[in-house]
Amino acid sequence: MSLQTFKCPQCGGAIQFDPGTQEMVCPYCDSVMDVQALQAMDADLARDLAPEGMAWGYEGEAWDESEQHGLMVYACRSCGGEIVSGETLGAAACPFCGNPVVMTSQFSGSLRPDAIIPFQVSKAEALQALQKHYMGKRLLPKVFQDSNHLEEVKGVYVPFWLFDAEVDAEMEYSATQIRHWSDSNYNYTETSTFRIVRQGAIGFSQVPVDGSNAMDDALMESIEPFHLESAEDFRTAYLAGYAANKYDVDAQQSIERANERIRRSTESAFASTVAGYATVTPQRAHVRLKNGGVRYALLPVWLLSTRWQGKPFSFAMNGQTGKFVGDLPLDKAAFRKWFAGIFGVAAAALLAVSMIIVHIM
Amino acid sequence: MKMKRNLAILVAVAFLTSLWLPLSIAAVAGTAPRFIDRQGLLSAEQAAALTARLDEISQRHHFDTVVAVVPALDHREAHLFAADFFEQNGFGYGQDLDGAILLLATENRDFGFAALGSGIYAFSPAGQAYLDRLFLPDLKANRYFEAFMAYADGVDDFLAKAEAGQPYIAGNIPLTAAQRASYRLYAIIISLVLALAAALIVTGVWRGKLRSVRRDNLAHAYIRENSMVLTGQHDIFLYRQVHRVRRAEQNHSSSGGDSFTSSSGHSATGHSGKY
What we know:
The complex is a heterodimer of chains A (361) and B (275).
Chain A: E1 4-5, E2 16-18, E3 23-25, E4 32-33, H1 35-45, H2 65-68, E5 71-75, E6 82-86, E7 89-93, E8 100-102, E9 115-116, H3 123-134, H4 142-147, E10 149-182, E11 186-210, H5 217-222, E12 232-233, E13 243-245, H6 251-271, E14 279-308, E15 311-318, E16 324-325, H7 332-360
Parallel strand pairs in A: 9-14, 10-13
Antiparallel strand pairs in A: 1-8, 2-3, 3-4, 5-6, 7-8, 7-13, 9-12, 10-11, 10-14, 14-15, 15-16
Chain B: H1 2-29, E1 35-37, H2 44-61, E2 64-70, H3 78-88, E3 99-105, E4 110-116, H4 119-122, H5 125-140, H6 144-163, H7 177-209, E5 229-246, E6 254-261, E7 267-274
Parallel strand pairs in B: 1-2, 2-3
Antiparallel strand pairs in B: 3-4, 4-7, 6-7
Helix pairs in contact in B: 2-6, 5-6
């Protein structure tokens, strides 16, 4: 298995991609390297090193077949430590020396991503965003903010499938206009019914669908949109310092979700062109997708996890736009207190006002 | 002899005085008592108290305030019967016969109200509806004394307002105690419901702020700019339906309330109803 680490040419320390400068930075000697220049080094670094024969006389237990399934074993090129990981892991940090490593074989050949959006926001900004996420939430347990400890904060390049599509649509609606008038004896209601037809085309560009089973689809869709026009060609150097997974949900499996989103968006966009009616009811929708295209991309996501009262809480931040999401626990005692308080104050005020009105009637 | 003649003169004076006194009272206050009860609905004490109250109001406002109970009506509506009854019994102040009468016919539980002279100004149709609300609840519950006293108090209030130049008309009708009580009940219920809704909405919004993870079923963010083109756009009229509903009519439990003319030609206002 091929593994790539990124080392500073000056001091040999592990270097990482810095979202602030969009360059490779050595945290030990502060050297700064251009990603493009580092690309040239990739070829050299990719060379397989001959194994060093060192027999310790230890014959450990071999992985049995069931254990081996789904596992990959790599040797860290920095310290020689053995990295055991899931078969979808594409980049990580060596657990022994901390050097960022990239399993280049995960991103070679047909598995090579077409594009990548490099991280634009840093870990510090992600932590700040978490604190901001807690603010202004009256029903968040106060002790949650104070006592919960982040278990993990990691920048992950999540595999996404990006779907392009041209859509031909033909929509039919039944719509009504309503008019009221009266004479001395009757109240009249006139309902005019119309058949509305809309035909046309619409184009979608790079609709993302999460290609990783490990990622919660709702969490990934919540941090959208990604601005894919600023995506770069894939380079392994961008992965340095971050975790990365290769896809384990292929494009074919992702098409259904892309189609569903494109269909609903098309219906919504065409429905918005029907105006001036009291009611509009869809009767028929014919949506035909054509000229579809699929690309494979790695998109940056900060994942934060914490545990409170035995329950895990996950947060995600769009590594490009900084959009932060994550469900928070409810303080039931505070909820009851606020509910009773608002009800009491509102009831007292409304009763006082209504009694005054009745009194002056 | 002289003593006998003096006695004769005294008897004659007393006789003449006895003849003159009722006439003078009748000239001021009508020929019959202002409470006429031919069905014996009230006790003697209640009748005396009511009569005293009616007399006091009548004299203070120069406005004959009368209550009458009869067994039955003739062919006329109760308020027309009441107006004629008022005149035939010699009630009414001045040339226009200023006064008002509440007449009950017990046979079919009819009541009629009529006001003459300045009563037309004091008792507008809207005002008469308000007057009904003052005494009808007691009348329907057969609390006759309470009903008649409420009527007397109401007439007193109406006359005071009219004398102040602000007769009860639509727009300045006060609520009755029963109406006020029911409005208070509605106000309490509505206030509690609104307060509950406010608490639900506010805490619901706050709860919603804790939830930010949700699937995005649309792909609006990825629609290519200016890519939407409408090649066909038809709004085709199919048919029209007209539905009509008869307008609700004002539902009165009593009739009248407008001006009319009594049998003798005097202008009056009044209305009839059931109790």
